[in-house]
Amino acid sequence: MNDCQCHRGPDDDGVFRDGSVGLAHRRLSIIDPENGGQPIHNEDGTVTVIFNGEIYNYGALKERLTSAGHRFTTQTDTEVLVHLYEEEGPSFVDELDGMFAFALWDSERERLLLARDPMGIKPLVLAETDDKLAFASELPSLFESDIDLGGIDRDALAQYFAFGYIPAPKTAFRNVSKVRPGERILISDDGIDRDKYHEPSITPRDPDIDTAASHLRSLVESAVEKRLMADVDLGAFLSGGIDSTIIVGTMAQLLDDPVKTFTVGFNQDRFDESWAAREVASFHNTDHHEITLTANDVRESVPDVLNKLGEPFADPALMPSYAVSRATRNNVKVALSGDGADELFAGYDKYRVESLSKYYRALPAQIRKYAVEPAVNALPASRGTAVGDAVYKGQWFINRSGERSVPERHFDLMRVSDDQAIQSVTNVDPIEAGQTALRTQHAAISPELADRESLARIQAVDTRLSLPDQMLTKVDQASMYNSLEVRVPFLDTDVVEYALSLPTDHKLTGRDRKRVLKRAFDDVLPESILQRNKHGFDMPIGEWFKHEFADEFVSMVRATDLGILDTAAILELFDEHLDGNHDHSRFLWTVYVFKHWAVRMQEQGVLE
């Protein structure tokens, strides 16, 4: 199990056994590289911990614990955990400021404590049967154990074909669950006790825009400064967008040496943003590194990346994220990123659609149903040209703006396929699974948001669902496959809670996105970056399916499918995509990843 995760920690490894309990750890050395090997114990060896991540307030905690008489043998943040547990028991997790997943064994009380950070930056999965329990940072590690995974969870696969990923707590296997963000699990002879020790506190505020911008800036600057803690070289991802530019600009103000920045571009102009990254790099005088990807580069990396997945995960941006992480790791061990700001400050197109949809719904229903929608949906939509893109966006808008409940509209904004494509999925119901997941999340959000406008509620739900289970999963996979640690300042809990508390018109107006964020950092943003439209960190899979990936896709579709997909219907969608009548790229990629995963699982003997 430990060897299976050597990419997460190539610098060192350690194993601890105590009767029926075994702990194993792979180390990526960031703090106290020479002396911080794990597992780490307390003074008498009765408390043992293995830990993934960083505790940013460990200095203050260590000082307090030392004053209380605890003896430290390393300079690591990890050692704080065993001593803080001695002082406060399982409740000590509430005091941790950082990104983490850990397991702590108390041999005297014979109990095991598992916990994951409040935003879900670091992963943790747990397998349970009647007489055994196993956990790991990644699913493939569990494949190397002797625990029964319980076979395929078809409800989870229904959610996969709804969203392109499987939301927590489900995984692709019935006996395995994801530990949720902010969850603490205590395991003893009394059983398994799971509870949420932290939920973001969202108290609606209504400061004027300048006051909000000033306070936000101080919070983000503090968050960046905390994340510069390291005994190794660090750098930053730089896409040329608002978010990464703010992180790089803040780092440049805090560091004496030029920031090492890293970006990836495409050899297709429509997807390439490297020019913007170069402008930012010049503006902040960074030590800039740039790589360019072709379709063949991605093709060559796809098997390597997908072969590492323990369950299907179909965010296409995983591939360029993997490439930029690989290039970054050749230079540094730690990188800061701008992830999370789109969810907090309404940067995605889906938020603009939700904001504008009320105006579309103001049109008479008969005009929408019998005039606008048939006319727009009849147009050919094939991404790759200005006209095709416009048609695609028009169809995307009108098909997600109808008279439905907020959770149902939210699902339409997140789903990877239209009703036509979803009909090719058999024996499971992605629409029902997706809508149920969204209804559950909307029902559980903070009561203070119940009366807020729909966009505020959707953003709050996204921080609990798509942010940890899609965005942060992608970041962790892409980086840790390359033994790179990524830190995300925008997901500091103070920043998250303040951002979600602000009125939506501080974030999104008819003409502007991320309004308060840009106001807060206007001096670190070049004018060209302030004025440019948002671009996603995407790859041109729609075009690649028509050319470089065409034969491979057809071959893969005809491979095993576990009785989930209608092969003939999938091939009809593929032909329609090739003809340029509709853009099915997101769904086709979801199918391709699923097929690749299913074949791989059968080859490894994980699935019969």
Automatic annotation (TrEMBL):
Ranges for domain Glutamine amidotransferase type-2: 1-190
Record site feature (Important for beta-aspartyl-AMP intermediate formation), residues: D339
Catalytic reaction(s) noted: L-aspartate + L-glutamine + ATP + H2O = L-asparagine + L-glutamate + AMP + diphosphate + H(+)
A single GO BP: asparagine biosynthetic process
One GO MF term: ATP binding
Chain residues that bind ATP: V264, S337, G338
Alphabetic keyword roster: ATP-binding, Glutamine amidotransferase, Nucleotide-binding, Plasmid
E.C. numbers: 6.3.5.4
Any single Gene Ontology cellular-component annotation: cytosol
Pfam families found in the cross-reference section: Asn_synthase, GATase_7
Residues noted as binding L-glutamine in the record, renumbered to the chain: D77
NCBIfam families assigned to the protein according to its UniProt record, in alphabetical order: asn_synth_AEB
Family per record: Belongs to the asparagine synthetase family.
Protein name: Putative asparagine synthetase [glutamine-hydrolyzing]
